């Protein structure tokens, strides 16, 4: 059971103070009866609430898929730069979502945002081996030794030995390459540092998949949408 004003406030219907007025004025019904007590204890899963005769759709968690643009920080707050949370509309910000793992400021592509701490943990913990797939452009061609080194576990600049990763060549040109990289963990600047350890540089990085879930390519950079139930089921199927 929760207070009526708290439930409505969490869903973005106003501050607790504003809701006290709204409720007092008789705009809120619980199970079709006008209530005037803002502290009324309700069961948000069972009770039917109307505000201004519109039914309130209750949910605790939200799950968003964003095509993260270049130049935006994947954090909930930053003193200087725009964050991915700034790109969300108020209706989603009220749920206080946070990014699932981080993408660098200049990395684009699939970023999940949720307020579901359990799912977040399972997706980012290396223990669960959820693959992250990246499309990358490299400043030099890739050779078989690079592919083998990724498979064996690249050693990063700080001595850390990465888990096995898969490096696939999409196109090798004379002085550059386009590749697909699959990693199971998400260390700081991981993919860039893996290539650095091979003396090569990532010049463009885009995440295309998170576990079994693929980026909806119809989302322009900076756009986002809620996950469908089917996509949520796909995410959970990572552990089946
Ligand atoms: N690896 C990186 O180097 N950067 C990212 O943003 C994600 C993975």
TrEMBL record:
GO molecular function: RNA binding; rRNA pseudouridine synthase activity
GO cellular component, one term: cytosol
Broadest EC class assigned to this enzyme: isomerase
SUPFAM superfamilies assigned: Alpha-L RNA-binding motif (SSF55174), Pseudouridine synthase (SSF55120)
Segments forming domain RNA-binding S4: 2-62
Listed GO biological process terms: enzyme-directed rRNA pseudouridine synthesis
Presence of the UniProt keyword RNA-binding in the record: yes
Alphabetically ordered keywords of this record: Isomerase, RNA-binding
Short name of one Pfam family: PseudoU_synth_2
EC number, UniProt record: 5.4.99.-
UniProt entry tagged with the keyword Hydrolase: no
Family that this chain belongs to: Belongs to the pseudouridine synthase RsuA family.
Protein name: Pseudouridine synthase
